[in-house]
Fold:
Amino acid sequence: MRFFLLLALALAAFSARAQETITVLERRELPIERITTSSHRLVLTLAYLEGSGWAPEAIHAALRQTAGILGQCGMMLEKAELVRVSAPERFRDFHTPSSRELVRALALAKPAVYFVAGTRQRPAFDAEAIGRANSRTRPELADTVWVTRGTRDLGLALAHELVHVLMDSGEHSEDAGNLMREETAAENTLLSHAQCARLRETATANGLLQPRR
Structure:
């Protein structure tokens, strides 16, 4: 009797896991404006989960603004791949255990941005950047950005979080108008020469940026 009970429990667990399939439904390259005077090129992956409330048009519009902001550092967004993902509901919010599982299953090229419904992390942030310095206990999440539906100033926030990842730093700036001020705002779009130099150097060393030949 004990054997059949254990077998039934194992089959139930297997069945539940089988229903939690993570599937890439579509991949497509987003059209972007290329900057011919750039010194470095960036290839970016953007993934959104069905049922999370994200529309491709909103992501594309934000990306165009982000690309323009990063261009001041001599970076050209060379390619942006948009990936539509089907996954069980528990993956639609950012939460370290389930998000690690999601990233492992998808194995998308990095740096990667995940557009999710919300967050179950505490403290809760609208958007969160995970570089190498703050991913030692969750290595799968290194070089990723997580953006929730509650994020304001989406293009600015995306640029802000990507700079954190590319610089591998959580530092903020107190300079007026600087993109890396702690709170994003429409007037905060600037990056200093020192920030740009550090961004290019660190991201190139980590394989996230490629110098243009």
The first strand starts at residue 23 and ends at 29. The two ends are 70 Å apart (CA to CA).
